[in-house]
Amino acid sequence: MTKKALITGITGQDGSYLAEFLLEKGYEVHGIKRRASMFNTQRIDHIYEDPHTDNARIILHYGDLTDSSNLTRVLSEVQPDEVYNLGAQSHVAVSFEAPEYTADVDAMGTLRLLEAIRFLGLDKRTRFYQASTSELYGLVQETPQRETTPFYPRSPYAVAKLYAYWITVNYREAYGIYACNGILFNHESPRRGETFVTRKITRGLSNIAQGLENCLYMGNIDALRDWGHAKDYVRMQWMMLQQDHPEDFVIATGIQYSVREFILWSAAELGITLRFEGEGVEEKAIVEAIAGDSAPAIKEGDVIVRIDPRYFRPAEVETLLGDPAKAKERLGWVPEITVQQMCAEMVAEDLRAAKRHRLLRENGLDLPVSIET
Ligand code: NDP
Ligand code: GDR
Protein backbone atom coordinates (compact mmCIF):
# COMPACT_ATOMS: atom_id res chain seq x y z
CA MET A 1 0.00 0.00 0.00
CA THR A 2 1.30 3.45 -0.93
CA LYS A 3 1.78 5.57 2.17
CA LYS A 4 0.10 8.97 2.28
CA ALA A 5 1.60 12.05 3.89
CA LEU A 6 -0.02 15.43 4.45
CA ILE A 7 2.30 18.42 4.78
CA THR A 8 1.19 21.83 6.06
CA GLY A 9 3.64 24.49 4.90
CA ILE A 10 4.53 22.51 1.75
CA THR A 11 5.27 25.76 -0.10
CA GLY A 12 7.94 26.73 2.47
CA GLN A 13 11.63 25.83 2.65
CA ASP A 14 11.27 22.61 4.65
CA GLY A 15 7.98 21.61 3.03
CA SER A 16 9.59 21.62 -0.40
CA TYR A 17 12.56 19.47 0.64
CA LEU A 18 10.35 17.11 2.63
CA ALA A 19 7.95 16.68 -0.31
CA GLU A 20 10.90 15.77 -2.57
CA PHE A 21 12.20 13.33 0.04
CA LEU A 22 8.84 11.61 0.53
CA LEU A 23 8.17 11.35 -3.23
CA GLU A 24 11.54 9.60 -3.58
CA LYS A 25 10.46 7.19 -0.84
CA GLY A 26 7.33 6.35 -2.85
CA TYR A 27 4.77 8.30 -0.80
CA GLU A 28 1.66 9.99 -2.14
CA VAL A 29 2.21 13.54 -0.94
CA HIS A 30 -0.62 15.92 -0.11
CA GLY A 31 0.06 19.52 0.78
CA ILE A 32 -1.94 22.44 2.11
CA LYS A 33 -1.26 25.71 0.32
CA ARG A 34 -2.68 29.12 1.13
CA ARG A 35 -4.66 31.12 -1.32
CA ALA A 36 -2.54 34.12 -2.28
CA SER A 37 -2.96 36.94 -4.79
CA MET A 38 0.11 35.68 -6.68
CA PHE A 39 1.52 32.22 -7.32
CA ASN A 40 3.22 30.94 -4.16
CA THR A 41 4.37 27.48 -5.27
CA GLN A 42 7.81 28.40 -6.70
CA ARG A 43 9.64 26.06 -4.32
CA ILE A 44 7.63 23.03 -5.43
CA ASP A 45 6.90 23.79 -9.08
CA HIS A 46 9.67 21.41 -10.18
CA ILE A 47 7.99 18.43 -8.47
CA TYR A 48 4.38 19.38 -9.02
CA GLU A 49 2.42 17.08 -11.34
CA ASP A 50 -0.52 18.20 -13.44
CA PRO A 51 -3.62 16.85 -11.66
CA HIS A 52 -4.99 15.88 -15.09
CA THR A 53 -2.29 13.23 -15.47
CA ASP A 54 -3.05 9.74 -14.18
CA ASN A 55 -1.63 8.74 -10.83
CA ALA A 56 -0.27 12.16 -9.83
CA ARG A 57 1.58 11.59 -6.54
CA ILE A 58 1.63 15.19 -5.33
CA ILE A 59 -1.72 16.78 -4.65
CA LEU A 60 -2.32 20.29 -3.31
CA HIS A 61 -5.33 21.42 -1.29
CA TYR A 62 -6.22 25.02 -0.51
CA GLY A 63 -6.32 25.63 3.20
CA ASP A 64 -5.13 27.52 6.23
CA LEU A 65 -4.10 26.62 9.77
CA THR A 66 -6.57 29.22 11.07
CA ASP A 67 -9.53 27.30 9.58
CA SER A 68 -10.57 24.15 11.48
CA SER A 69 -13.36 23.26 9.06
CA ASN A 70 -10.87 23.24 6.23
CA LEU A 71 -8.29 21.17 8.14
CA THR A 72 -10.93 18.65 9.19
CA ARG A 73 -12.22 18.26 5.63
CA VAL A 74 -8.73 17.82 4.11
CA LEU A 75 -7.74 15.28 6.77
CA SER A 76 -10.98 13.41 6.28
CA GLU A 77 -10.49 13.28 2.50
CA VAL A 78 -6.80 12.30 2.58
CA GLN A 79 -6.79 9.92 5.59
CA PRO A 80 -3.00 10.36 5.85
CA ASP A 81 -0.61 7.90 7.48
CA GLU A 82 1.65 10.80 8.44
CA VAL A 83 1.01 14.51 9.05
CA TYR A 84 3.93 16.94 9.06
CA ASN A 85 2.88 20.25 10.61
CA LEU A 86 5.45 22.62 9.11
CA GLY A 87 3.08 25.52 8.40
CA ALA A 88 3.72 28.60 10.54
CA GLN A 89 4.24 32.32 10.66
CA SER A 90 7.89 31.44 11.09
CA HIS A 91 9.65 34.80 11.32
CA VAL A 92 10.68 35.72 14.87
CA ALA A 93 10.97 39.48 14.25
CA VAL A 94 7.60 39.58 12.45
CA SER A 95 5.98 37.82 15.42
CA PHE A 96 6.55 40.97 17.51
CA GLU A 97 4.54 42.90 14.93
CA ALA A 98 1.81 40.29 14.43
CA PRO A 99 1.68 38.47 17.79
CA GLU A 100 -1.98 37.48 17.75
CA TYR A 101 -1.88 36.11 14.20
CA THR A 102 1.33 34.22 15.05
CA ALA A 103 -0.38 32.63 18.08
CA ASP A 104 -3.43 31.72 16.01
CA VAL A 105 -1.42 29.96 13.31
CA ASP A 106 1.51 28.51 15.26
CA ALA A 107 -0.20 27.57 18.54
CA MET A 108 -3.91 27.17 17.77
CA GLY A 109 -3.19 25.77 14.31
CA THR A 110 -1.40 22.83 15.92
CA LEU A 111 -4.29 22.23 18.29
CA ARG A 112 -6.76 22.37 15.40
CA LEU A 113 -4.86 19.69 13.51
CA LEU A 114 -4.49 17.39 16.52
CA GLU A 115 -8.13 17.82 17.44
CA ALA A 116 -9.18 17.04 13.85
CA ILE A 117 -7.12 13.82 13.96
CA ARG A 118 -8.86 12.83 17.19
CA PHE A 119 -12.35 13.90 16.11
CA LEU A 120 -12.08 11.96 12.84
CA GLY A 121 -10.96 8.80 14.67
CA LEU A 122 -7.56 8.90 12.92
CA ASP A 123 -5.73 8.71 16.26
CA LYS A 124 -4.64 5.09 15.71
CA ARG A 125 -3.78 5.55 12.03
CA THR A 126 -2.12 8.92 11.66
CA ARG A 127 1.34 9.83 12.96
CA PHE A 128 1.97 13.50 13.68
CA TYR A 129 5.17 15.53 13.44
CA GLN A 130 5.32 19.00 15.02
CA ALA A 131 7.92 21.53 13.82
CA SER A 132 9.24 22.65 17.19
CA THR A 133 12.18 24.97 17.48
CA SER A 134 15.36 25.90 19.33
CA GLU A 135 13.68 29.28 19.92
CA LEU A 136 11.92 27.50 22.83
CA TYR A 137 15.25 27.73 24.72
CA GLY A 138 15.43 31.53 24.14
CA LEU A 139 17.27 32.83 27.18
CA VAL A 140 19.30 29.67 27.53
CA GLN A 141 19.32 27.83 30.84
CA GLU A 142 21.99 25.26 29.89
CA THR A 143 24.61 24.88 27.13
CA PRO A 144 24.49 22.94 24.90
CA GLN A 145 20.70 22.63 24.74
CA ARG A 146 19.27 19.11 24.78
CA GLU A 147 15.82 17.51 25.10
CA THR A 148 15.82 18.02 28.89
CA THR A 149 16.95 21.67 28.94
CA PRO A 150 14.27 23.99 30.41
CA PHE A 151 12.53 26.35 27.99
CA TYR A 152 12.53 30.17 28.24
CA PRO A 153 10.89 31.59 25.10
CA ARG A 154 11.72 35.19 24.13
CA SER A 155 9.26 36.15 21.39
CA PRO A 156 5.55 35.79 20.55
CA TYR A 157 6.70 33.21 17.97
CA ALA A 158 8.55 31.15 20.57
CA VAL A 159 5.70 31.39 23.10
CA ALA A 160 3.24 30.18 20.44
CA LYS A 161 5.58 27.32 19.57
CA LEU A 162 5.82 26.46 23.29
CA TYR A 163 2.06 25.89 23.35
CA ALA A 164 2.34 23.79 20.19
CA TYR A 165 5.13 21.73 21.77
CA TRP A 166 3.14 20.94 24.90
CA ILE A 167 -0.18 20.29 23.15
CA THR A 168 1.65 17.74 21.00
CA VAL A 169 3.01 16.05 24.14
CA ASN A 170 -0.43 16.26 25.73
CA TYR A 171 -2.28 14.60 22.84
CA ARG A 172 0.34 11.85 22.85
CA GLU A 173 -0.14 11.23 26.57
CA ALA A 174 -3.89 11.80 26.76
CA TYR A 175 -5.07 10.05 23.60
CA GLY A 176 -2.17 7.81 22.64
CA ILE A 177 -1.64 9.61 19.32
CA TYR A 178 1.77 8.92 17.77
CA ALA A 179 2.89 12.55 17.97
CA CYS A 180 6.43 13.93 18.24
CA ASN A 181 8.28 17.20 18.41
CA GLY A 182 11.41 17.80 16.39
CA ILE A 183 13.24 20.57 18.24
CA LEU A 184 15.12 21.86 15.25
CA PHE A 185 17.92 24.41 15.38
CA ASN A 186 18.27 26.91 12.52
CA HIS A 187 18.52 25.27 9.13
CA GLU A 188 19.00 27.00 5.85
CA SER A 189 19.43 26.40 2.11
CA PRO A 190 19.19 28.24 -1.19
CA ARG A 191 15.41 27.98 -0.68
CA ARG A 192 15.51 29.85 2.65
CA GLY A 193 13.12 32.82 2.85
CA GLU A 194 14.89 36.01 1.75
CA THR A 195 14.40 37.81 5.10
CA PHE A 196 16.11 35.24 7.34
CA VAL A 197 19.63 36.25 8.19
CA THR A 198 21.71 33.76 6.13
CA ARG A 199 19.74 34.26 2.91
CA LYS A 200 19.60 38.01 3.47
CA ILE A 201 23.41 37.96 3.58
CA THR A 202 24.07 35.64 0.60
CA ARG A 203 21.49 37.40 -1.56
CA GLY A 204 22.41 40.93 -0.44
CA LEU A 205 26.17 40.51 -0.97
CA SER A 206 25.62 38.81 -4.35
CA ASN A 207 23.44 41.72 -5.45
CA ILE A 208 26.06 44.23 -4.25
CA ALA A 209 28.83 42.37 -6.10
CA GLN A 210 26.76 42.69 -9.30
CA GLY A 211 25.79 46.34 -8.78
CA LEU A 212 22.12 45.76 -7.97
CA GLU A 213 22.33 47.12 -4.40
CA ASN A 214 24.83 49.29 -2.54
CA CYS A 215 24.81 48.23 1.08
CA LEU A 216 23.51 45.46 3.32
CA TYR A 217 21.85 46.68 6.54
CA MET A 218 22.03 44.22 9.44
CA GLY A 219 20.86 43.90 13.06
CA ASN A 220 22.72 42.03 15.80
CA ILE A 221 25.70 40.47 14.01
CA ASP A 222 27.08 39.07 17.29
CA ALA A 223 24.17 36.60 17.58
CA LEU A 224 25.39 32.99 17.70
CA ARG A 225 23.54 30.19 15.95
CA ASP A 226 23.91 26.46 15.30
CA TRP A 227 23.17 26.32 11.55
CA GLY A 228 22.53 23.17 9.51
CA HIS A 229 21.21 22.35 6.04
CA ALA A 230 17.43 21.89 5.55
CA LYS A 231 18.00 18.75 3.44
CA ASP A 232 19.66 16.98 6.38
CA TYR A 233 16.93 18.14 8.76
CA VAL A 234 13.88 16.97 6.77
CA ARG A 235 15.39 13.46 6.61
CA MET A 236 15.29 13.46 10.39
CA GLN A 237 11.65 14.65 10.43
CA TRP A 238 10.71 11.50 8.53
CA MET A 239 12.94 9.25 10.67
CA MET A 240 11.18 10.43 13.81
CA LEU A 241 7.86 9.08 12.53
CA GLN A 242 9.31 5.63 11.71
CA GLN A 243 10.12 4.57 15.32
CA ASP A 244 8.16 2.07 17.41
CA HIS A 245 7.34 4.74 19.99
CA PRO A 246 6.90 8.50 19.57
CA GLU A 247 9.60 10.67 21.15
CA ASP A 248 10.94 14.22 20.93
CA PHE A 249 14.39 14.93 19.51
CA VAL A 250 16.81 17.86 19.28
CA ILE A 251 18.19 18.26 15.77
CA ALA A 252 21.33 20.35 15.51
CA THR A 253 24.95 20.18 14.36
CA GLY A 254 26.56 20.86 17.77
CA ILE A 255 28.67 23.70 16.30
CA GLN A 256 28.03 27.41 16.72
CA TYR A 257 29.06 30.47 14.69
CA SER A 258 28.22 34.18 14.67
CA VAL A 259 26.26 36.13 12.07
CA ARG A 260 29.46 38.13 11.52
CA GLU A 261 31.32 34.92 10.56
CA PHE A 262 28.57 34.05 8.09
CA ILE A 263 29.03 37.48 6.48
CA LEU A 264 32.79 36.91 6.15
CA TRP A 265 32.34 33.45 4.57
CA SER A 266 29.77 34.76 2.10
CA ALA A 267 32.03 37.64 1.11
CA ALA A 268 34.97 35.23 0.68
CA GLU A 269 32.83 33.06 -1.64
CA LEU A 270 32.38 36.19 -3.78
CA GLY A 271 36.13 36.88 -3.76
CA ILE A 272 35.77 39.81 -1.34
CA THR A 273 37.90 40.30 1.77
CA LEU A 274 36.10 42.38 4.39
CA ARG A 275 37.34 44.28 7.42
CA PHE A 276 34.99 45.15 10.28
CA GLU A 277 35.53 48.56 11.88
CA GLY A 278 33.73 50.56 14.59
CA GLU A 279 31.50 49.46 17.43
CA GLY A 280 27.79 48.98 18.11
CA VAL A 281 25.55 50.74 15.59
CA GLU A 282 28.66 52.46 14.13
CA GLU A 283 30.14 49.13 13.09
CA LYS A 284 30.60 48.62 9.36
CA ALA A 285 32.31 46.23 6.98
CA ILE A 286 34.76 47.72 4.47
CA VAL A 287 36.10 46.02 1.34
CA GLU A 288 39.79 45.33 1.87
CA ALA A 289 40.56 43.36 -1.27
CA ILE A 290 38.79 41.82 -4.26
CA ALA A 291 40.01 38.73 -6.09
CA GLY A 292 40.25 39.56 -9.81
CA ASP A 293 36.97 40.70 -11.33
CA SER A 294 34.86 38.44 -9.14
CA ALA A 295 32.84 41.38 -7.79
CA PRO A 296 32.83 43.86 -10.70
CA ALA A 297 30.57 46.48 -9.10
CA ILE A 298 32.62 47.25 -6.01
CA LYS A 299 36.05 48.68 -5.23
CA GLU A 300 38.44 48.62 -2.29
CA GLY A 301 37.33 50.94 0.52
CA ASP A 302 33.61 50.57 -0.21
CA VAL A 303 31.41 50.14 2.87
CA ILE A 304 29.06 47.29 2.01
CA VAL A 305 27.63 46.32 5.43
CA ARG A 306 26.19 48.69 8.04
CA ILE A 307 24.18 48.22 11.23
CA ASP A 308 20.57 49.40 11.31
CA PRO A 309 18.86 49.24 14.75
CA ARG A 310 15.57 48.59 12.92
CA TYR A 311 16.69 44.97 12.77
CA PHE A 312 17.30 44.67 16.53
CA ARG A 313 14.59 42.66 18.27
CA PRO A 314 12.67 43.79 21.39
CA ALA A 315 14.05 40.67 23.12
CA GLU A 316 16.94 38.87 21.45
CA VAL A 317 18.06 35.26 21.54
CA GLU A 318 21.81 35.82 21.74
CA THR A 319 23.12 32.29 21.60
CA LEU A 320 21.89 28.82 20.63
CA LEU A 321 23.89 25.61 20.49
CA GLY A 322 22.26 22.21 20.23
CA ASP A 323 23.34 18.78 21.42
CA PRO A 324 22.20 16.20 18.82
CA ALA A 325 23.53 13.20 20.84
CA LYS A 326 20.11 11.55 21.27
CA ALA A 327 19.33 11.73 17.53
CA LYS A 328 22.73 10.23 16.77
CA GLU A 329 22.55 7.44 19.35
CA ARG A 330 18.92 6.44 18.86
CA LEU A 331 18.36 7.07 15.18
CA GLY A 332 21.87 7.13 13.74
CA TRP A 333 21.24 10.63 12.38
CA VAL A 334 24.23 12.85 11.63
CA PRO A 335 24.23 15.97 9.45
CA GLU A 336 26.07 15.46 6.16
CA ILE A 337 26.41 19.05 4.91
CA THR A 338 28.63 21.53 6.78
CA VAL A 339 27.59 25.14 7.29
CA GLN A 340 30.49 26.30 5.12
CA GLN A 341 29.39 24.00 2.25
CA MET A 342 25.86 25.30 2.68
CA CYS A 343 27.04 28.92 2.59
CA ALA A 344 28.94 28.23 -0.66
CA GLU A 345 25.83 26.63 -2.20
CA MET A 346 23.64 29.58 -1.17
CA VAL A 347 26.08 32.18 -2.54
CA ALA A 348 26.43 30.26 -5.83
CA GLU A 349 22.63 30.25 -6.32
CA ASP A 350 22.18 33.90 -5.35
CA LEU A 351 25.10 34.98 -7.52
CA ARG A 352 23.58 33.17 -10.50
CA ALA A 353 20.30 35.03 -9.92
CA ALA A 354 22.09 38.38 -9.50
CA LYS A 355 24.06 37.88 -12.74
CA ARG A 356 20.87 37.04 -14.61
CA HIS A 357 19.28 40.17 -13.20
CA ARG A 358 22.24 42.32 -14.17
CA LEU A 359 22.20 40.94 -17.71
CA LEU A 360 18.51 41.76 -18.07
CA ARG A 361 19.18 45.26 -16.78
CA GLU A 362 22.07 45.80 -19.21
CA ASN A 363 19.75 44.82 -22.03
CA GLY A 364 17.06 47.28 -21.07
CA LEU A 365 14.83 44.63 -19.52
CA ASP A 366 15.02 46.21 -16.11
CA LEU A 367 13.26 44.66 -13.16
CA PRO A 368 13.09 46.20 -9.70
CA VAL A 369 15.22 44.43 -7.09
CA SER A 370 13.16 43.71 -4.02
CA ILE A 371 15.15 44.84 -1.00
CA GLU A 372 12.43 44.33 1.62
CA THR A 373 14.40 42.75 4.45
P1 NDP B 1 8.88 28.90 5.92
O1 NDP B 1 8.56 30.24 6.46
O2 NDP B 1 9.80 28.78 4.75
O3 NDP B 1 7.52 28.16 5.52
C1 NDP B 1 6.36 28.30 6.29
C2 NDP B 1 5.22 27.62 5.56
O4 NDP B 1 4.02 27.80 6.34
C3 NDP B 1 4.91 28.21 4.16
O5 NDP B 1 4.51 27.18 3.31
C4 NDP B 1 3.75 29.14 4.46
O6 NDP B 1 2.93 29.38 3.33
C5 NDP B 1 3.00 28.31 5.50
N1 NDP B 1 2.05 29.08 6.28
C6 NDP B 1 2.22 30.29 6.86
N2 NDP B 1 1.09 30.68 7.46
C7 NDP B 1 0.18 29.71 7.26
C8 NDP B 1 -1.18 29.55 7.60
N3 NDP B 1 -1.86 30.48 8.27
N4 NDP B 1 -1.82 28.41 7.23
C9 NDP B 1 -1.17 27.47 6.52
N5 NDP B 1 0.13 27.56 6.14
C10 NDP B 1 0.78 28.67 6.51
O7 NDP B 1 9.43 28.03 7.16
P2 NDP B 1 10.48 26.83 7.17
O8 NDP B 1 10.20 25.92 6.05
O9 NDP B 1 11.84 27.40 7.37
O10 NDP B 1 10.10 26.13 8.55
C11 NDP B 1 9.13 25.08 8.61
C12 NDP B 1 8.61 24.98 10.03
O11 NDP B 1 9.67 24.67 10.91
C13 NDP B 1 7.96 26.23 10.58
O12 NDP B 1 6.89 25.82 11.42
C14 NDP B 1 9.05 26.88 11.41
O13 NDP B 1 8.49 27.66 12.44
C15 NDP B 1 9.75 25.64 11.94
N6 NDP B 1 11.16 25.78 12.22
C16 NDP B 1 12.02 26.25 11.26
C17 NDP B 1 13.37 26.29 11.49
C18 NDP B 1 14.33 26.79 10.47
O14 NDP B 1 15.47 27.11 10.84
N7 NDP B 1 13.96 26.85 9.20
C19 NDP B 1 13.94 25.81 12.78
C20 NDP B 1 12.94 25.31 13.70
C21 NDP B 1 11.61 25.29 13.43
P3 NDP B 1 3.33 30.53 2.23
O15 NDP B 1 4.37 29.90 1.35
O16 NDP B 1 2.03 30.77 1.55
O17 NDP B 1 3.85 31.70 2.99
P1 GDR C 1 15.90 33.10 13.95
O1 GDR C 1 16.47 33.32 12.48
O2 GDR C 1 15.34 34.32 14.54
O3 GDR C 1 16.96 32.38 14.72
O4 GDR C 1 14.66 32.12 13.64
P2 GDR C 1 16.95 34.63 11.70
O5 GDR C 1 17.75 34.13 10.56
O6 GDR C 1 15.82 35.56 11.42
O7 GDR C 1 17.90 35.36 12.77
C1 GDR C 1 19.06 34.74 13.30
C2 GDR C 1 19.84 35.76 14.12
O8 GDR C 1 20.38 36.75 13.26
C3 GDR C 1 20.18 38.02 13.85
N1 GDR C 1 20.16 39.07 12.81
C4 GDR C 1 19.25 39.22 11.84
N2 GDR C 1 18.16 38.45 11.53
C5 GDR C 1 17.42 38.85 10.45
N3 GDR C 1 16.37 38.09 10.08
N4 GDR C 1 17.72 39.98 9.74
C6 GDR C 1 18.78 40.77 10.04
O9 GDR C 1 19.05 41.76 9.39
C7 GDR C 1 19.60 40.36 11.13
N5 GDR C 1 20.73 40.86 11.69
C8 GDR C 1 21.06 40.06 12.69
C9 GDR C 1 18.84 37.89 14.57
O10 GDR C 1 18.67 38.93 15.53
C10 GDR C 1 19.00 36.50 15.17
O11 GDR C 1 19.70 36.55 16.37
C11 GDR C 1 14.79 31.08 12.68
C12 GDR C 1 13.38 30.85 12.07
O12 GDR C 1 13.51 29.93 11.00
C13 GDR C 1 12.44 30.26 13.10
O13 GDR C 1 11.22 29.87 12.46
C14 GDR C 1 13.09 29.04 13.74
O14 GDR C 1 12.25 28.50 14.72
C15 GDR C 1 14.44 29.38 14.32
O15 GDR C 1 15.26 29.90 13.28
C16 GDR C 1 15.15 28.18 14.89
Automatic annotation (TrEMBL):
Q: Which GO molecular function entries does the Swiss-Prot or TrEMBL record give?
A: GDP-mannose 4,6-dehydratase activity; NADP+ binding
Q: Which UniProt keywords apply?
A: Lyase, NADP, Nodulation
Cofactor section: NADP(+)
Spell out the SUPFAM superfamilies in the cross-references: NAD(P)-binding Rossmann-fold domains
Q: What sequence ranges are listed for the domain NAD(P)-binding? A: 6-346
Q: Which domain of life is it from?
A: Bacteria
- Reported EC number(s) for this entry are 4.2.1.47
Q: What does this protein do?
A: Catalyzes the conversion of GDP-D-mannose to GDP-4-dehydro-6-deoxy-D-mannose.
By sequence similarity, the record places it as follows: Belongs to the NAD(P)-dependent epimerase/dehydratase family. GDP-mannose 4,6-dehydratase subfamily.
Kindly provide the name given to this protein in its UniProt entry: GDP-mannose 4,6-dehydratase
**What is the protein's species of origin?**
Sphingopyxis italica
Q: Which classification does the entry list for the species?
A: Bacteria, Pseudomonadati, Pseudomonadota, Alphaproteobacteria, Sphingomonadales
